[in-house]
Specification:
Helix content: 40-55%
Order of helices and strands: HHHEEHEHEHEEEHEEEEHEHEEEH
Largest sheet: 5 strands, mixed
Distance between the termini: 56 Å
Number of helices: 10
Radius of gyration: 33 Å
């Protein structure tokens, strides 16, 4: 006898008030239902139901047994549901917003690694250089590079640090000389990202802090546009290190004023999402995967992970 199945049959018979209705709902014959109840009573050596040709009622001990059956069945169903939810492969489309800094340095590798594990997930990615409203935009996850103010309603998970670097093309520097300290930038064409923050570059070293206004040169809302301007010898740019890593490696851009910290030092790349509860499986899965990629040693990510 399958006792658990018999308990389910018994519960259904009581709930529906008859063998025939229970049999129809369970997809069994009335004889099989009757036999199941009989075997259960024989196994327990007690009568659970009082039967007449017109009515069906629980015995006193049957009432206690029914309550116990309900608790066991509900607990088992809950366990199975949780297990299925845990093992079910997430699917659907993740809407992600990311600053261009992260999009060109770490996001592609992250999405590729996640999709290898969960091939039923698709991505709808929006990149930005200026402010974006995650809640209004309906994004599941938003990455921040530390310059965008995060709403108090969002959860922020720090992932890594990123450094800004001052760069220029060798051709531009050959024409205009290489500045040796921040005060010399006043005579140069400066290429700045107009992201809504102060249009001032700040440098510091052991001797103090230096602030330089970026009024002359090129101002653009896109860091990619500023990079292109630098590659075309228009001026000196302040850009995220990952964005110009290949240019520096190939010598098409070179670093300037390396001995100074820029804008207070490295800034954080964080992951933002709405609340810690009621997240869909696909969002929770992606969040957990992303955090593990940046917090676990020996993971292959493009940006340097931090503790």
């Amino acid at each position: 006898m399958n006792q658990l199945q018999a308990m389910r049959v018994f519960t259904r018979v009581v709930d529906l008030g008859g063998f025939h209705l229970a049999a129809r709902q369970l997809g069994m014959s009335a004889a099989a239902v009757t036999r199941s109840i009989g075997m259960l009573e024989a196994h327990l050596n007690i009568r659970l139901l009082n039967r007449t040709t017109r009515s069906l009622s629980l015995t006193e001990i049957g009432k206690d047994y029914l309550e116990g059956c309900r608790e066991i069945i509900e607990k088992l169903d809950e366990m199975e549901s949780n297990l299925m939810e845990t093992t079910r492969d997430p699917s659907g489309t993740l809407r992600i917003a990311a600053p261009m800094t992260f999009a060109v340095s770490g996001l592609g590798e992250l999405l590729a690694a996640y999709r290898t594990l969960h091939p039923r997930i698709d991505f709808d990615v929006t990149t930005f250089d200026t402010h974006i409203d995650m809640v209004e935009g309906g994004y599941d996850v938003c990455f921040s590079d530390g310059r965008r103010y995060a709403s108090a309603t969002l959860v922020s998970r720090r992932l890594t640090n990123i450094e800004d670097v001052v760069v220029a093309s060798p051709t531009y520097l050959a024409r205009h000389d290489t500045p040796r300290d921040p005060s010399a930038l006043g005579g140069h064409s400066l290429l700045a990202v107009s992201d809504g923050s102060s249009r001032t570059w700040e440098f510091s070293n052991a001797n103090g802090v230096y602030r330089v206004c970026t009024g002359r040169g090129v101002s653009a809302s896109s860091s990619s546009m500023v990079r292109v301007a630098a590659l075309n010898h228009i001026g000196i740019a302040l850009l995220p290190a990952p964005l110009v890593a290949n240019d520096l490696a190939h010598g098409t851009l070179v670093r300037v004023l390396e001995q100074f910290d820029v804008n207070g030092g490295p800034r954080e790349i964080s992951m933002l999402y709405s609340g810690r509860t009621n997240l869909s499986r696909k969002v929770r899965s992606f969040i957990d995967f992303t955090v593990s990629q940046y917090r676990t040693p020996n993971k292959t990510v493009a940006l340097r992970a931090v503790a």
